[in-house]
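User: Fold both of these, please.

Assistant: Here is the first one.
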Amino acid sequence: MAAHPARSGEVQDGEAGMTGEDRRLPVRSMAVATGVAVASIYYAQPMLALLAQDFPGNPLVPMIPTATQAGYALGLLFLVPLGDLMERRRLIVVQFLILALVLALTAAAPGVGVLLAASVLLGAASTVAQQVVPFAAHLAAPERRGAVVGSVMAGLLGGILLSRTVAGFTAEAFGWPAIFAISAPVAALTGLWLGRVLPEGPAESRQSYGRLMVTLIHLWREFPTLRRAAYTQGLVFGAFSVFWTILALQLASPQYGLGAATAGSFGLLGMTGVLIAPVAGRVGDRIGPERVAALGAGVAFLAWLVFGFWGSLIGLGIGVVVLDFGAQVSMVSNQSIIYALRPEARSRINTLYMSVMFVGGAAASAAAALAWRQSGWPGVCMLGAGLTLAAVALQAHGLTRTRGARGVAG
């Protein structure tokens, strides 16, 4: 795999204002790659009705999205730390090729049992997206890290938001295996392309894999900043998950009487958050990511006020734009914070951060279903507002401690 050498801080693919030397890091390619990888996790969600038709009466069909999420959680914990142990470019390429094979296996699954097993593998392989993001942070200069991470994360959010829409339309037209069959060669080509354009990323650690996993505990204990960023993003992502878990049910209620296609179209509205990610990163580079992270949590809280007090379809549309804006600003800013803690441990730090965020999203989704059954949309809005308000409080506490520490140092 040929690659052009790149120095730390070199950026490419449309990063305005950069010199020719600084255009060698393929930011756009890395952004697209994260979107391709993470989209695989969500393909099954809008296709459950079609799967139920193909496998009538099988009680395991509703567990397919859960199996994918479980595989993703396992991949976060056991595969993402390998980014500190192995040469990063080769690891990313190999994991994309594995993802392609698993997508092909999923498309050809003859029964629900094989489909469940393939879904677990699919979720685990999709964590290659979380290999790309810390690698981008590793290659970027400190003063550009927020902008680079923001650009790459824009691709990841785009993959999350568009995956359900694309999968739903493709499955309706060609059957549920089609999206997996189409995505398999796309994943393979993405991996091969990254092997061509990415620089080498030598291993940062010479420890054994077992010892590397033990250091996760030490890193978690050592950095209160990491814990605060992870908890905050877990709350914000939880509020984000609350909305997307209940949206289809709310739209199908007598107040609106709308179907799944309308719910999928809200993903297109959420794409506006993709545009703000690089901007949030650049602002964080200038004024400090802590302040921007607090702003993001506050904007997410504002979105839930819109949902609660503006009950029309327009209110939902404006609210989702605001929510995705806040969630993306918070995500990019918190990642800028944690990637600066210990450069040689970025993959492990990302494992901890993303694992807590993922748990927060899963727990909030379960709580959202309960709130919906007990109190309907008002209860869901109270849950989302409470989660984001707690995130604002955590960020405010962190800002206070940071300013206090600076005052003592001064």
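And the second sequence with its predicted structure:
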Amino acid sequence: MQDDSVTSMDDLKAVVRGFCEERDWDQFHDPKDLAIGMVTEASELLQLFRFKTPDQCRAMVSDPDRSMDVRDELADVLYFVLRFADMNGIDLSTELRRKVGIDAEKYPVERSRGSNLKYDEF
């Protein structure tokens, strides 16, 4: 099994693509339904943290046994992100770098460091 340090985005897309092709699921993976899947899985991840304090959340994530649900839901979110990108010809590495560049302009270090204000609240 390969970890993040040696696995490319294309490798991950291929894993998800193969899984879906074996099951003939392409027919169900239009942009709307994949976006719904992303939000649904993200909501399931969020549910794990509901009504917990920041310390309880950190403890859950750091505990190997208790964090399994977190890891499962995070993997489900990633699955749908990868599938959406693959089915729609989106290069995630390029788009992430592009968006971080935009956000760097919105959130200059000298104004945003240590602040959780949105760019239009500076």
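The mean pLDDT is 97.
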